[in-house]
Amino acid sequence: MGSDDVVLLADEAIALGAVHAGLGAAYGYPGTPSTEILEYLIALYEKGRGPRAAWCANEKTAYEEALGASFAGKRALVTMKHVGLNVAADPFVNSALVAIKGGLVLAIADDPGMHSSQDEQDSRFYAQFAGVPCLEPTSQQEAYEMTREAFDLSERFQLPVMVRITTRLAHSRSGVKPREPRAENPLGKCADKAAWTLLPANGRRRYDRLCKIQGELEAWSAASAWNPVAAGAGAADFVVVTGGLGRNYYEENLGDLEARLGKGKLPARLHVGAYPLPEAKIRELAAGTKRILVIEEGSPFIERAIRGVLPSGVAVSGKLDGALPRIGELNPDNVRQAMGLPPRPAAPLAPPPLPGRPPQLCQGCPHADSYQAVAKALEGLPSTLVTADIGCYALGALPPFSVPEALVCMGASISMAVGAAEAGYENVVGFIGDSTFLHSGMTGLVDAVSREVAVTIVILDNSIVAMTGGQKTMLPSARIEEIVRGIGVEPAHVAVIDPSPSQAARNAELFRREIAHRGVSVVIARRECLEAIKAKKKSAARETAAKGACK
Ligand code: SF4
């Protein structure tokens, strides 16, 4: 490492790359494994050393705020995890039609293996669907470089550009060599109003432009240094296409492959780091071979696409034919197997007989008391159903609580409770966190109130976004009560409780009463997250120590 190099997570390398590209603003919604991108930028902003960076109510508002900054001529970054793009899909897809002014980059982190997510969807499909370029780094240095280039590309093609990473890269560190920063763009505006107002007539023209520019994107991708081809010596009976971290695992096994095939006799290989797919390069690579092995992290995106590109007679091998696992992450061992190499000798391990340790709510977590009180209130009632949402409290679906019966995506608990109640369930409870309520739960409550549906909604208000590392909830606790009343829940059926063990009997009684109410009830269970309390104590201790040092 050189003296100017910095050791960064790939998340942080994206953030630094954006700053050095002349970033004007950054927005996002926290979600593992993307959170550290904006954390890095917010820390810079708070120290007065970086542009505006802020968490937003949800991924859609984050994307739209970045879009507004781009409209104003500034380079803007928006960050989220893969499932967050489902929420931001509307502005993302439509922003491909406007004439992007200041570079607009979406940095998105996918989670193959579902370490902290409810699915492992692959964001490359979204980039293809919207018709925009996507860059996919395989190292921290590439994360830095590609983010810088993404802003240039965005302004060159007047399109948003996606930078996609996956969990292992997002959360691993390596040295990054930064380059000279670029200045921020001045404030500006697109001169062509019609290119930003997507009325049908304008939308048709803009969509025509998006379709026509695809050829230019393909030409750029074909020439991109991010899509390098390594010539092969023809000894192998296959050629290789790698994508994302698949490249690293392939390279990790090259020594053994070379030992098997003979020195310098490795298969030809294309690495895809820039999309749209460089189809001509793939066709050239495939000429004269009988089989292509595709090693890519995520869904079989490249693998499916090249089946339509190659002449018949070339077999495509990868996740669809079982050469690699269809779900979960790649690793050096499963890639090795797909390369036809024998397993590496493993040291025999005799693990001690440890008990299983499934994830659990923290000991003393306030959510545990809320679940127990609702479970008590539902005891003996007929026709009961409990929904929950995304957050720490999702763990209440596991033993010892096992209370929620359905949990699907951000904000769904209230709307699902409404649907179940209207389908005929009589005693329906929906759990949702304070932050998730503000993210996308409120609209479900609007539906419940507008149709006077008999549901009891429990807002678990712990004053923090606990699951993603303790970000501040967007609005103070007291406002949540005002919002609930403002939406129109009858004041007699809005209650704030203290979910503490000492209040267990009283809370269960209140839940029982509200569940019996044949309209909308909202119970706000308010007690601070234990991690938030710890963080406050630490920060107070740091402040005291700092004051002492100044004396
Ligand atoms: S971090 Fe906070 S909210 Fe999450 S389980 Fe622990 S105490 Fe509960």
How would you describe this structure to a colleague?
- With 551 residues, this protein is an alpha/beta fold.
- The chain has 3 domains: 6-223, Rossmann fold (3-Layer(aba) Sandwich), CATH 3.40.50.970; 229-338, Rossmann fold (3-Layer(aba) Sandwich), CATH 3.40.50.920; 366-533, Thiamin diphosphate (ThDP)-binding fold, Pyr/PP domains (Rossmann fold), CATH 3.40.50.
- The chain has helices spanning 10-20, 35-46, 59-71, 84-87, 89-95, 124-130, 140-157, 167-170, 200-223, 246-252, 254-261, 279-286, 301-307, 332-338, 366-378, 412-423, 434-450, 477-487, 504-516, 530-550, and strands at 6-9, 23-28, 52-55, 75-81, 104-110, 134-135, 161-166, 173-176, 229-230, 239-243, 269-272, 274-275, 291-296, 315-317, 384-387, 427-433, 455-461, 494-497, 520-526.
- The strands form 4 sheets. Strands 3-2-4-5-7-6-12 form a 7-stranded mixed beta sheet, sandwiched between helices. Strands 9-11-10-13-14 form a 5-stranded mixed beta sheet, sandwiched between helices. A 5-stranded parallel beta sheet has the order 15-16-17-19-18, sandwiched between helices.
- The radius of gyration is 26 Å and the shape is globular.
- The model has no long low-confidence stretch (mean pLDDT 94).
- The site of iron/sulfur cluster (SF4) has 10 residues, from helix 20.
